[in-house]
Amino acid sequence: MNKQGKRNKMSTTHHLFTVEEKDLFIELLKEWPNSESGTELASHSVSPFISFYFPPTPDNHRDIALLMVDIHEAFEQLLGYPYTMTIHPEAERPHAYPEEEPDLRRQALESHPSETFVFWFTDEPNHASSPTTAGHFWRRRFQADGARVNYSSISFYYRWQWWLDNRDAWRQFVLKTIDLLKAHQVYSGFAMANPMEYGTRAEVTTWERALTPAFYGLDIEYPFGMRDELPSGIRPPTWAFLLADHWREKLDLTREQVRSALAHPRISITELHSGQWIELGEQPELYPVEHGVPELPMLLNRLLKPIRYDDLGLLGFGQWDGDPNERFTDADSRRWMARFDADSDWPTPASRLLTAKHQLPRKPLRR
Questions:
Q1: What is the pTM of this model?
Q2: 13-29: b or e for each residue (b if 16 or more CB lie within 10 Å)?
C-alpha cells in the first residue's frame, strides 16, 4: 500500500487534505486500488470488501450468534490469522489479540435476543486508521413490538493482493456464507475502509466526497448507518451482488427472467438457495470517470432500479457550520445513488459524454 501526505494535526476546523494530496491519492488508486493517504495520526485507505445483510428472527438469536462466530473463525483461517486487535461483548475497549482471546461461543450462548451481539477483529492497532484486514459482526436485537425489522450485518476488509491470490477460496467462502445466513443483501467491491473508532467517520466521508467524482466504481459501505435503511431498498452494486429471492420477488421476475435481462458474456450468475449471486466481470473495478460510464453496472442498475432506495443513510455525517471540508449533501447523495442511470448528471454533465472505449477486460493487477 502507498502512503502520502503528512500534517501536524487533523481537525474539522482545518482542511483534512490539500487539492494536491487528493490528486495524488487519485493517481495512486488508478495504479493500485488498495492505496492509502494519511498523516502521522491516521491513514485512510480504499479497500476491497464484502458485506452481508440479513434479518434477525426471534427464535434463533443464539444460533445466529454462534453462526457468526463460525463465520469469523472460517474467514480468519482463510486469511491466515492476521488479526492483532479485538473488541467483543465483554470488552470495554479494544485489546491485543490473540493474547487476550475472547470466549465468543460462551458469549453467543449467553446473548439475549433483546440485546445486540457485536464483535470486531482487525490488524490495525490505530483505531483511527483504516484497517488492511478486518471483520465486523453485528447481530441486531430483535424487537418484539412489531417495529420494522432492521438488518444484522457482517463486513470484511482484506488486501487486494490477497484477493487476487485467493479469489477461488474467497468465492467458495462467500457463497457458503450467503446460504448459511439466508442473506437478503450482499455487496462486494471497493470502498473506503472504516476505522474501528466510529468518530473517524467524519474524515472518511470527506474522502468519499472527494474521491467518488473520480471513480464510478468506488462504493460507499457503512453498515453502522445502513442497517436501518437497507430494508427499504438496495443500493446500486458496483461489482458483486446478491439478488436474494426476497428482493427478486418484489421485482416480479423469475430467476430465468433475471438471467435473460443480464445476458452478457462478462456477467456471471451463480444460483444459490438464497438467490442469485451476480458478478459484473472477473474482478471489481474502480472505473475512473475519464474512461466513461461503465456498461455492466448500468445494465444491472437498469434491472434493479425499481427496488433501489435513494435515501439510504450511507454517508454518516453531513456538513456543519464552520467546517471547511466538503461532504455529501442529501441532494448529492441522491445524485450519487443514481450515477448509473442513463439520465444521470453525476459527477458532471460534461463527464457523462465520455465514451467507454477504454473499458476493455483487464488482466488482474499484480505486484
A1: 0.91
A2: eebbbeeebbebbbebb
Q: Cα–Cα distance between 295 and 142 in angstroms, integer?
A: 40
Encode pLDDT of 240-287 as tens digits. Answer: 999 999 999 999 999 999 999 999 999 999 999 999 999 999 999 999
* Domains of the chain, residue spans: 19-56+159-353
φ, ψ of residue 75 in degrees (nearest 5):
-75, -35
- Burial annotation 39-55 (CB, 10 A radius, 16+ → b, else e): beebbbbbbbbbbbbbb
Backbone CA torsion sign across 180, 181, 182, 184: negative
3-state class (DSSP) for residue 284: coil
Determine contact, residues 186/239, Cβ cutoff 8 Å.
no
The SS3 assignment for 44 reads strand
For residues 218 and 191, the answer to whether their CB atoms sit within 8 Å is yes
Grid cell 446478491 in the structure block, residue = 242
Largest CA distance in the chain: 57
